[in-house]
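Extended Data, panel c. Modelled sequence:
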Amino acid sequence: MALKPQGPSVSFKAYIGWIVKHAYWGVAVLLVAFIFFPTNYVMEKPGPTMNVLGKAVLDYGEKKVDLGGEAIEEGGASSPSGSLDVVTVNVVGSPSNTLPVFMAVANYFNPSSRVLPKEVVFPIGSSFSQDEKNQQGLMEEAKQSAKAAAASFLKSEGLSAEKVENAKINSGPIGGPSAGMIFALGLIEKATGQDLTGGKNVAGTGTLSKAGKVGEIGGIASKMIAARRDGASFFLAPASNCAQVLSSKVPEGLRVVPVSSLSGALKALKDISSNRVSLLPYCKA
């Protein structure tokens, strides 16, 4: 009996059939590998707030972390009727640990977060530890500028600046330069005993020079969300950030008040505490 020839075409067809039959496993493996593949992006989202008039407590909305003591210590405890909140931004990711594809895609459509190229957040060539050190250095500079600007204001009013100059500001893990303005306002209220907010919940952000000039900051969209999340009705923002404010979705119930100087921030607080809301400035296109 003659045997049927087994040509190469028969084995090739079988090979192709096996590949087709099992191809979905390869596709699944590639898909899993792709969604976990690192991108060049990090995520910015609302961080904790801290009322500089009261205890040093980081408020994350759903939880609070007590750092111990007063946020600003000037020799006595405080019992504010309102609040002056420092607002922060949390960054998910680092120069060496960026978002995987699935997190970047999912959070791109999340209105409470911003997905950004890592170079926008971290200096090119920096490491996580270098950035942390840099942020803490900027925070210390912000504290010194806040003290200098607050002391200068008090002296211009014929008041003693001794409490301000000797004050201790407890910022915990918060870094960066953008708390300067709120620190200065808190220092002035605690040194004078004045109720600057009139019982209102006010948040704010802005760098502050020793001469009292308020400067631009980053992450304002996330900071507005954090402010409203933790109860603020008014938000003091650098006037130089108005373009970002206008291009962002301002949380309902939050009034953004642009300021360009410490004296301007104090005037805004005076109008807020006196319910003269119609006199407050606003960002214009």
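The longest strand covers residues 41-51. This feature is highlighted in the accompanying rendering.
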